[in-house]
Amino acid sequence: MADVTSDEAPAREILTYELFGTAVRELAQQVVDDGYEPDIVLAVARGGLGLAMGIGYALDVKNLSAVNVEFYTGVDQRLDVPMMLPPTPAAIDLTGMKVLIADDVADTGKTLEVVRDFVADHVAEARTAVIYEKPWTVIHAEYVWRRTERWIDFPWSSTPPLVDRRGGLAH
Questions:
Q1: 47/49 Cα distance (integer angstroms)
Q2: Which residues form a coiled coil (predicted)?
């Protein structure tokens, strides 16, 4: 992984699409090596969508779903607590399933905590997989690709959006 450093910016973790492919495969291998066979992969949108799809393919799990949780509003800017946004899957539909919750990063861990608590009373078992985990997270994922204290530049969010939904086309 490359470090991007300058006088103004602290070092960051840079995840390229190529490294993302490696991360997905290595995380899936961790799940296989652990003997865990999820019935469903539950993505935390938006960051966990690509990971959930890749892990789903690697583990031959076709049952994928997503929950949309908003927490980060910018670099180091977040809401007081994560909010689960509609539509959410009916927790009752997860009854008795072995669930693998997939997200891009466990930073504070509060997003994963909200999702884990949402499914906890219904599923047979829930485990988590993340690409990155920060040392201060309140939830430690069972499957982690890398641990870091740095801000992470993900390939899908390292450049600005093409459209600003609050004001038309981005420049």
A1: 6
A2: none
Phi, psi of 31 (to 5 degrees): -65, -45
Summarize pLDDT for 112-162 with one digit per residue, the tens: 998 999 888 889 999 999 999 999 999 999 999 999 999 999 999 888 888
> Rounded to an integer, what distance in angstroms lies between the CA atom of residue 74 and that of residue 13?
17
Interatomic CA distance for residues 71 and 157, integer angstroms: 15
152, 105 in Cβ contact below 8 A?
yes
* Residue 6 scores a pLDDT above 50: no
Q: What is the pLDDT of residues 74-93, one digit of tens each?
A: 555 555 666 666 656 666 57
Distance CA(155)–CA(170), nearest Å, equals: 18
Given a contact cutoff of 8 angstroms between Cβ atoms, the answer to whether 2 and 18 are in contact is no
Contacts of 116 (CB under 8 A, 6+ apart): 101, 126, 128, 139
Domains of the chain: 12-169 (3.40.50.2020)
